UniProtKB/TrEMBL annotation:
CDD domains: Ferrochelatase_N
A GO CC term assigned to this protein in UniProt: mitochondrion
Polar residues bias: start-end ranges: 15-24
Pfam families associated with the record: Ferrochelatase
Native species: Pseudictyota dubia
Protein name: Ferrochelatase
GO biological process, one term: heme biosynthetic process
InterPro entries named in the record: Ferrochelatase, Ferrochelatase_N
Amino acid sequence: GRRARGQPIHAATTLDPSTFNSDDLSTEEESSAYTNVGVLLLNLGGPEKGEDVEGFLYNLFADPDIIRLPAPLSPLQSTIAAFISKRRAPKSRAAYESIGGGSPILKYSNA
């Protein structure tokens, strides 16, 4: 059936590349096995500068499409996001400073 709007998408694969033996398949089956593999890449962005880190983290943790809290906690998502982003920002800011002051994701995404 159709997935209801707002429900998470679940994906599964039955093809484990580490155990795949193409000698067990005919040419047609082998071709089909390789064409049924999909790859999904996500880019959630990143802070451009050190001073953007806390706001970036808040937006990440406050977005229910990225992090969905259990129903009883969902009204607190914004408060929890503020708490986590404030506590995590100094360590994250230092990590970004060690690679040039911000996330390189925008530069690589636009390349």
